[in-house]
């Protein structure tokens, strides 16, 4: 299938595997790229030299296009960008920051730049900053998110109305039916996160993957809005946060509760009680850990069938 997103990235399907801390290393990114989607290495949890290793391994594992996601909160961001340029990465997704900061630097080096937003205002800012495409991520999504709680169903048509560059929908998309739905709303492609956490190739801890397939409706909540809003599974750590809120904790107290390396502890080391477990609402309909290529194929097959089905409506 061909459209603005497949043309922009040079891929077969407009399915982007989200860059995700502690989940998307070279194994997942190359598996998705080899299956015809766009695989993304999540640099947010990597030291610069670790990112170097992942890019080099990804290049050996696929000759298809792949990208790197760089959250702008990253403290040593200059070093990441130097490695990305040095290793000739062709596609960069930036998130969690001002799109003006890095877009022209990357574009000057011939890199395709995509920025992740959760509101119309920031989508317009990203377009003004010169990015090639936008990911609009709704409230359902796993990981860090906007404060406004705008759902994917509302966000996609609202962003579509105001921008003209290609639009990628994210948040709550794990199936071909959901992909069709957001494309009807105006998206040119989808960014899929949670579904790929429950894949064989994700670097997340097996216990976390198992927790994701067991998670039901209502298992997650967006919290820590005072720091950086994040959607988490309701485990002991989440309950500790709720208790801190009930005790009127200050921002400093919340910061110290969060501490360091909570996300690594939960998602990479598999501490399901004390760790931070980032996942989207859509975990409720993810029941199986599968190979990434199978996930891409399942989404495309369901998309094609659903498209034929809705002709009768
Ligand atoms: C475990 C996890 C880690 C994530 N880490 C990042 C990240 O490092 N950078 C980023 O831009 N988004 C991150 N996200 C958000 C995803 O990129 C994506 O937009 C989101 O997962 C889409 O919603 P979904 O989970 O409903 O598919 C993360 C999401 C999850 C589930």
From TrEMBL:
Keyword Flavoprotein on this protein? yes
Any keyword Transport?
Answer: no
InterPro entries per record: Aldolase_TIM (IPR013785), NMO (IPR004136)
Q: Which Gene3D superfamilies match?
A: Aldolase class I (3.20.20.70)
Swiss-Prot/TrEMBL keywords: Flavoprotein, FMN, Oxidoreductase
User: Which GO MF terms are attached to this record?
Assistant: nitronate monooxygenase activity
Pfam families annotated for this entry?
Answer: NMO
Source organism superkingdom: Bacteria
Listed name of the protein: Enoyl-[acyl-carrier protein] reductase II
Q: Origin organism of this chain? A: Arenibacter echinorum
Q: Mind giving the lineage of the organism this protein is from?
A: Bacteria, Pseudomonadati, Bacteroidota, Flavobacteriia, Flavobacteriales
